[in-house]
Amino acid sequence: MSTRTEEAGPSGLAAALVEAGALTPDWLPTFEAVPRELFVPDRIWPGIADGTEQTTLVDRAKDPEAWFKAVYSDIPLTTQWDDGRHTGDGLGTTPTSSSSMPRMVFSMLADLDAQQEHRVLEIGTGTGWNAALLACRLGGGNVVSVEYDETVAREAGENLRAAGLSPLIIVGDGRLGYVGSAPYDRVIATCSIGEVPRTWIEQTRPGGVIVAPWGTDYGGEYIARLVVCEDGTASGPFTRSSAFMRLRQQRTERPPFDAYFKGRKWPADGTRSTTALSPADIGGWLEQFVIGLKVPGAFWRAERYDDGSYTLWTYSTDTQSWASADYEPGADSFEVVQSGPRKLWDETETAYQWWDEKGRPGFERFGLTVDSDREQVWLDSPHSPV
Prior knowledge:
By secondary structure, this protein is of the alpha+beta class. It has 10 helices and 18 strands. It has a 9-stranded mixed beta sheet with strand order 7-6-5-8-9-10-11-17-18. A hairpin with a 5-residue loop joins strand 10 (221-228) and strand 11. The chain is globular. Residues 1-6 have low confidence and may be disordered.
């Protein structure tokens, strides 16, 4: 996108999305009919195209040109922090609502493949732009959107009415879907999940499609495109990388440091060893995804130092186990300390070695199957569970 404000706008964004292959000719009229600016509040924190960080506040009242440029850039826009508790101009602690990156919006709509007369359930209304695009294309009577946050839902409703669109907006727990308009031909989530709610499958017709960002506790997230079968199962591949805010009811607790050390100093009762696996080699999005699949119930934090070194901490969510791995630039051996019933670094190494031995498969070779008892990620085929 150009940095010149007078060149920013719907046509510039459309050109960028078409060039990226995200905005297809059949969706272009809908894009033009539903301006993003109608669904963006006056105060936003623009994100970056490749990553999850936010930049400083852009206030429409103070800098309308910067606001307009941000709206029509291919970036996500944070619109709420800390479930609405943060009201200042600075960055909050955790972003909790946004206008998604346009490239991701239209890529997911392509995955959804909603056709005329299809009934669609959306989980996570946000600013209302995605619901508006669906309502413009399919008709408001065919679109239901569920939003947990009452304030977010009210503002989205106002945006939709201003745009002359009228999908049904429900304030409620997205895990429950909305049985009042079921069954649906398509379900799309604009928040990430770590477990597919059974109700979404139950409220979808056989042959229907569910599109949702799916990620592990450890990290890494990809869009799952699941087809619902006659037997009540759902299965399909991952289609693309994503980084969405978590469904509120599925947020993972991150216990504090002292929950593990209980006032003791490192290394406490930890066992020391060394490893040839560099912590830097497991920090990628795909590597995190694979480790999360093979090391369930674990998460990581990084403690960084001025000289470029850092400590990679791995914790079990039950607070019983932890591991630290010290990274130093240029080193070929790294100190590890582990404590608790689980040897978390050993599990991490085993997961990485499994991925390496499989030829380091990309996300497109993985898929997800959900049945009445569990969900299982697979490699290449549902018959090859990870």
